[in-house]
Design brief:
The protein has helices at 2-34, 39-53, 57-70, 75-91, 96-109, 114-126, 134-146, 150-163, 167-185, 203-215, 252-265, 320-348, 352-381, and strands at residues 192-194, 226-235, 240-247, 278-287. By secondary structure, it is of the alpha+beta class. It has a 4-stranded antiparallel sheet with strand order 1-4-2-3.
Length: 383
Amino acid sequence: MRAAMTAQRHSLLRVVALIGVCAVLAAAVGWQAASAAPREAVVLNNEGVKAINTGNCQLAIVKLEQAWKLDSNYQLAKENLAIAYNNYGLQLQKSPKEAIKQFHKALYFEPKYATTAENLDGIITVMHKNPKAFEDRVALADEALREHEDIGALIEYRQALAIREDSSVRAKLNAVSRRVELNHRAVASGNSSSNTAADVDFGPYMAELQRSIKRAWFPPKGDKSKRVVVVFKVHSDGRASDVKVEKSSGVATADQAALKAIENAAPFRQLPEGAPAEVDIQYTFDYNVFPDERMASTATDTRVSQDNTARRSGNGHTMWPSVIATGIQVAWLIAALASIVVGLRGMALRDNAKLDKSKIILNVGVFAVLIWIVTVLLFRLHP
């Protein structure tokens, strides 16, 4: 009798521990589902993929950047954005200085993208530099820094240090990494950044600042894409000062429209609590003119390789197969837990005739729960 009671206690402890594991897994699954990419981000990703597959890389970049800004953890959008930048770089091969910027951005979003690494080396060779030479990579990084292309500087300093370690280059890399990271934290602001303290959450503030500037921006009409970089200070009370063009588009009316947008949008809301008395803001205005998809060019230079297919579109959390799979998982878990309950109740009756049968039912339930745990883990790790 004592041995039977001890076996019952052990079985009960095993079930209690199993239920605890199930609760933790359910919480983790619920958290992951809650943190899945927003529906709008999924739609933008899919539109970006379609644009990639039609050769309209500029449109793809705009769509995928919007998806990434909505959810900076949306890995699929980042991967497709890297592909879009890579393919756009290939379309710009006749302008190596512009092409290299696109390859830099592709590697920033997907550092392990071997195809882009090859394309970057190829375009550097076209620029009459040696991609395997430490000095050439540092020179490219310094040039990118002078042109306020922090991502380009980041990639080239990394490549240089992969060839040879150097303390001064390491210091430059650390400095530019901090700037890029700060810009990443303010991703909701739309290509804007600040040099403020890292412990202050500027995300909501920068998002509101962006909306204010966009409402006040009236870009001139044109047939070419342009970019204007404007810098200015925002004081604690929201006033803006020292508004100036840091990088001109080459078109006076476009530059003036960008300056006017800042001036008309100010004053902004007061800086968030804990911020310094004033912050420096760098804001980028992109004038995107999209060519007719039927006229999109295709790269043919054999010195670089091309991957012009987006990896995949959509998000598993929004598709019917995922709903069906989740329903099966829930039904399986309910059946397994029911088996455990039936088995425990049978053992509690202390009927020797039914004891073995109850143990079998209990063990089947426990085994079914373990299978459920493995299935859920595999489903979440490989959607």
